[in-house]
């Protein structure tokens, strides 16, 4: 979202970011005014999350989309979003894939709204199907006519940072085209932050990350230890990041080739990495591709992670394995293959070039302005 928000602000327009109250410091650090809305009630989210280990992967994924994104998050956000729009009177709402309350609020106010796709185009129809009932329920709470919210979702202008070659790897070039507007997300530049010293300095660097959420979810609490133990025999230096909610000291003794941090700027690691092993989260996946770093994907808990891994493999920029924590050792076994075969890195660099060739987010600003009045 940030590249588009910054482009709009740099174009002379006023931008405010609506986000949960707990995101105040994140929004402030990004340089924007914050319009807070309610955080999802922990007890309601907790009940859904505790049920996941009893479900099949696809069923668990659909449950989270429908109940957490579609109902719990959206219902918590809607009252404040309606109030913000009534008070501030914006001209346009820019939202991301999993945030649907602003779609309903914008429709009630008669405002244009634009969707920034957080994932591959392939996930959009699946997500829309999963949230269909909760979205219409939310629309009726806001006073919309039956079916209007779903119709609005289907007709939204969609922006994406995914190049067509990655979005549709199996489709011939001549037949590509899906109506999405594609722009290049400028890479984050964190400066020359030097990595600490550990292991063999001549060994390739493997970056291992499973996002900031996995470690706080009970079914995946062991993901870091499993990965460390499996990577101990790989001839590489391993940097593992675990997120700010996990204490690295609690992982126990580390293999001699590994170093663990709660957080490290992703771009700084990827500038030096020879390969990455990760969960297939959108930001992580696209960050590695933008840096031209090949990856092994082990999807952990959502369908979009499976899709991201499949697309990475389809374009030759890495490999993917079956979803679930039980696939971690299989994923690690693929890391030496990705390190040894230069074709994976070459394909990752090809996708990086395709991403860099997309128009700047600044070129989206006139399009967004054209949707207003």
Structure, explained:
This protein starts with a helix and ends with a helix. It has helices at residues 2-10, 24-30, 42-51, 57-88, 101-109, 123-130, 132-141, 148-154, 164-167, 223-231, 266-270, 282-290, 303-314, 328-340, 342-356, 364-370; strands spanning 16-20, 33-37, 93-96, 113-116, 157-160, 181-182, 205-209, 237-241, 258-261, 275-278, 295-297, 318-320. It has 2 domains: 2-165 and 358-370, Rossmann fold; 205-356, Glycogen Phosphorylase B (Rossmann fold, 3-Layer(aba) Sandwich). It is built from 16 helices and 12 strands. The longest helix has 32 residues, at 57-88. Strands 9-8-7-10-11-12 form a 6-stranded parallel sheet, with helices on both faces. Strands 3-4-5-6 form a 4-stranded parallel sheet. It is globular, with a radius of gyration of 21 Å. It is α/β, with parallel strands linked by helices and 373 residues long.
- Domain unit count: 2
User: Which sheet architecture does the biggest sheet show?
Assistant: 6 strands, parallel
CATH architecture of the largest domain: 3-Layer(aba) Sandwich
Query: Got a strand count?
Result: 12
Order of helices and strands: HEHEHHEHEHHHEHEEHEEHEHEHEHHH
What is the terminal-to-terminal distance? Answer: 23 Å
Set down the secondary structure blueprint.
Layout: H1 2-10, E1 16-20, H2 24-30, E2 33-37, H3 42-51, H4 57-88, E3 93-96, H5 101-109, E4 113-116, H6 123-130, H7 132-141, H8 148-154, E5 157-160, H9 164-167, E6 181-182, E7 205-209, H10 223-231, E8 237-241, E9 258-261, H11 266-270, E10 275-278, H12 282-290, E11 295-297, H13 303-314, E12 318-320, H14 328-340, H15 342-356, H16 364-370
Parallel strand pairs: 1-2, 3-4, 4-5, 5-6, 7-8, 7-10, 8-9, 10-11, 11-12
């Amino acid at each position: 979202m940030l590249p588009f928000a910054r482009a709009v602000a740099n174009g002379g327009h006023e931008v405010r970011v609506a986000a949960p109250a707990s995101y105040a410091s994140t929004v402030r650090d990004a340089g924007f005014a914050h319009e807070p809305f309610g955080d999802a009630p922990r007890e309601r989210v907790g009940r859904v999350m505790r049920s996941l280990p009893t479900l099949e992967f696809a069923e668990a994924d659909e449950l989270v989309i429908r109940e957490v994104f579609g109902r719990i998050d959206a219902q918590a956000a809607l009252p404040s979003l309606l109030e913000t729009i009534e008070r501030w009177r914006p001209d346009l709402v820019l939202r991301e894939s999993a945030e649907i309350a602003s779609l309903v609020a914008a429709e009630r106010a008669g405002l244009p709204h634009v969707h920034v796709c957080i994932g591959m185009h392939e996930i959009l129809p699946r997500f829309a199907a999963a949230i269909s009932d909760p979205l219409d329920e939310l629309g009726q709470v806001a006073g919309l006519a039956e079916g209007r919210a779903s119709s609005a979702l289907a007709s939204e202008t969609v922006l994406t940072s995914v190049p067509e070659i990655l979005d549709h790897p199996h489709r011939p070039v001549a037949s590509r085209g899906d109506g999405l507007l594609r722009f290049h997300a400028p890479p984050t530049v964190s400066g020359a932050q030097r990595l600490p010293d550990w292991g063999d300095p001549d060994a390739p660097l493997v970056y291992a990350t499973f996002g900031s959420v996995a470690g706080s979810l009970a079914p995946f609490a062991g993901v870091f230890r499993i990965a460390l133990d499996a990577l101990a025999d790989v001839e590489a230096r391993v940097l593992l990041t675990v997120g700010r909610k996990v204490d690295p000291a609690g992982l126990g003794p580390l293999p001699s080739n590994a170093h663990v941090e709660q957080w490290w700027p992703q771009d700084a690691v990827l500038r030096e990495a020879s390969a990455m092993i990760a969960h297939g989260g959108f930001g992580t996946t696209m960050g590695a591709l933008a840096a031209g770093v090949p990856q092994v994907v082990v999807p952990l808990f959502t369908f979009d992670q499976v899709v991201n891994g499949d697309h990475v493999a389809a374009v030759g920029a890495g490999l993917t394995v079956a979803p679930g924590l039980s696939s971690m050792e299989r994923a690690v076994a693929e890391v030496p293959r990705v390190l040894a075969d230069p074709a994976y890195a070459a394909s990752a660099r090809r996708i990086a070039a395709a991403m860099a060739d997309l128009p700047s987010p600044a070129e989206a600003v006139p399009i967004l302005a054209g949707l207003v009045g």
